[in-house]
Amino acid sequence: MPTKDKILTREQLPAVLDGWRQQSRRVVFTNGCFDLLHLGHVDYLEKARELGDALVVGLNTDSSVSRLKPGRPLQDEVSRARVLASLLFVDAVVLFDEPTPLELIQLVRPEVLVKGDDYAISGIVGHEFVLNNGGQVLTVPLVQGYSTTRIVERVRQTMTE
């Protein structure tokens, strides 16, 4: 499937989800900024996908990222979405601009909601909705030492040396 075809609007998403569910595919959802894709992201997303049959990634829009992380994003939302969609284990990418992905989680109705193990289950946005609808909320181990913030700091340090 061409990369661009995996980037869906909220209007397109329900039909795709219905098709997957008719095939008895277990839908997994996660979200993030994914500003500079690195090994930590790839490992995390691959582990998330292993928890089901289709992985939907909610991607913060540029304005959403800038509200969360001053001076960011480093890459625009279209670029970030295309890079994520190019991963074989990502089945769909959907942008969201709200402060949290709760509305998108309610639209997706995932069987599995996933975040990294730096989150407590009770702190994961949408955990109550997913659990109340019979789904699971899980965390996966993160690869230590990888973060976009750390990469940016190293680049800045290298440039000043």
Please outline the helices and strands.
Elements: E1 7-8, H1 13-22, E2 27-32, H2 39-49, E3 54-60, H3 62-68, H4 77-85, E4 92-96, H5 102-108, E5 112-116, H6 127-132, E6 136-140, H7 148-160
Parallel strand pairs: 1-4, 2-3, 2-5, 3-4, 5-6
List keywords for this structure.
alpha/beta; 161 residues; six-stranded parallel beta sheet; 7 helices; Rossmann fold
Overview of the structural elements:
With 161 residues, this protein is an alpha/beta fold. The chain has one domain (3-160): HUPs (Rossmann fold), CATH 3.40.50. It has helices at 13-22, 39-49, 62-68, 77-85, 102-108, 127-132, 148-160; strands at 7-8, 27-32, 54-60, 92-96, 112-116, 136-140. Strand 5 (112-116), helix 6 and strand 6 (136-140) form a beta-alpha-beta unit. The protein starts with 6 loop residues before the first strand and ends with a helix. The mean pLDDT is 92.
Q: Overall mean pLDDT score?
A: 92
CATH fold-type name: Rossmann fold
Strand sequence of the main sheet, in spatial order?
1-4-3-2-5-6
Tally of alpha and pi helices: 7
**What percent of residues adopt helix (DSSP H or I)?**
25-40%
Using only C-alpha atoms, the radius of gyration works out to 16 Å
Q: Which CATH architecture is right?
A: 3-Layer(aba) Sandwich
Largest sheet: 6 strands, parallel
> Unreliable stretches, pLDDT < 50, 5 or more residues?
none
For the termini, the CA-CA separation is: 44 Å
Beta-strand residue fraction: 15-25%
- Overall morphology: globular
The CATH superfamily is known as: HUPs
Would you count the extended β strands for me?
6
Q: Look at the structure and give the CATH class.
A: Alpha Beta
Secondary-structure-based class equals: alpha/beta
Total of domains = 1
Instruction: Give the ordered list of helices and strands.
Output: EHEHEHHEHEHEH
